[in-house]
Amino acid sequence: MYTRREVIGVLGSGKEEHRAWVEPLARWIATRGFHLLTGAGGGVMGAAAEAFVAVEGRAGLSLGIVPGAVVDGTWRPKPGYPHAAVELPIHTHLPLSGEQGTEPMSRNHLNVLTARALVALPGGAGTVSEAVLALRYGRPLILFGPREAFHAFPAELERTESLERVCAFLAEAVR
User: What architecture (CATH level 2) is domain 7-173?
Assistant: First the structure.
């Protein structure tokens, strides 16, 4: 018999890993039996996937929404995608990201809508656009990391430097 597992999304920089913040979070997600969802790239996404899959005995999977495009009649993933620690890549034809992250042809909609709850770590325009989409779609999202890293994010989102607060937020969101 299959048991439905909730999906927790971890968002953040595609370049900076922020391992001190993301690794304990990803391990917590894994030990609670959730699936982990990322944008399938490097940086925070890759560090989260690596920490998640390193947890022995976990029940959830590392999922990744892969950006891509059809070029000369052939689908191709965006270079560098999916990260090696993504166990189940979900390939899309959606090429847009960054400043264009709220546009209809961005995979960010799938990142936000697939997750039951989301945690955003420091990131650039793409992460900010995912936060905007989470508000638009009514998805629970908390910002995790140094407060000064979130000045460009919507003011109404909760910011915290406490892993305990993030875990309590996620536990409440999936009840």
Answer: 3-Layer(aba) Sandwich (3.40)
CB-CB contact of 60 with 33 (8 Å): yes
Q: Is the pTM of this model over 0.90?
A: yes
Residues whose CB is less than 8 angstroms from the CB of residue 154 and which lie 6 or more positions away in sequence, other chains included:
131, 132, 135
Q: Is 24 helix (H, G, I), strand (E, B) or coil?
A: helix
Residue at token pair 């000064």: 148
For 89-152, give the secondary structure using H, E and C: EEECCCCECHHHCCCCCECHHHHHHHCCEEEECCCCHHHHHHHHHHHHHCCCEEEECCHHHHCC
Q: Note the pLDDT tens digit of each residue in 70-121.
A: 888 999 999 999 999 999 999 999 999 999 999 999 999 999 999 999 999 9
Report d(CA 144, CA 157) in Å as an integer: 11
With a CB cutoff of 8 Å and minimum separation 6, the contacts of 156 are: 135
> Is-contact 43 13, C-beta < 8 A?
yes
pLDDT digits (tens, 9 = 90+) for 21-40: 999 999 999 999 999 999 99
> Residue 133 to residues 30, 47, 126, 167: CA-CA distances in angstroms?
25, 23, 11, 22
Residue 107 — φ and ψ, nearest 5°? -70, -10
Distance of CA 59 to the CA centre of its chain: 18
